[in-house]
Amino acid sequence: MNPSSSLTEQVIEISRSDRWSVYRRLQELAIPCSCKTEQPLRVQINNATAAIQLWSVVRQMKLSRRDSVYWLEKCWKITVKRK
Question: Alpha-carbon distance 35 to 13, whole Å?
């Protein structure tokens, strides 16, 4: 299988103010992306981890503080069942 066939470019339509924050965070995560003035953010998704990280970064920007706190508190209450 040709490795380049598994690459997917995603165009992310988000507000101008959030676009640069998302771009910088994706750069920190070493996810290939580009963002030009007055253009949408383009992100190269190479694997499932990159897709989940993209989802997480965009979600973090779009959620209100209240919803983020609720989600985090819910995560803290999750119990792991052991076999």
Answer: 11
d(C-alpha 20, C-alpha 70), whole Å: 26
CB 41 within 8 A of CB 12: yes
Record the pTM: 0.72
Domain ranges in the chain? 3-76
Residue pair 61/24 in contact (Cβ under 8 Å)? The answer is no
> Which tens digit of pLDDT belongs to each residue from 24-71?
999 999 999 998 888 899 999 999 999 999 999 998 888 888 998 898
Please, what CATH class does the domain formed by 3-76 belong to? Answer: alpha beta
Choose among 48, 56, 21: nearest CA to 35.
21
Centroid of chain to Cα 43: 9
pLDDT score for 23: 94
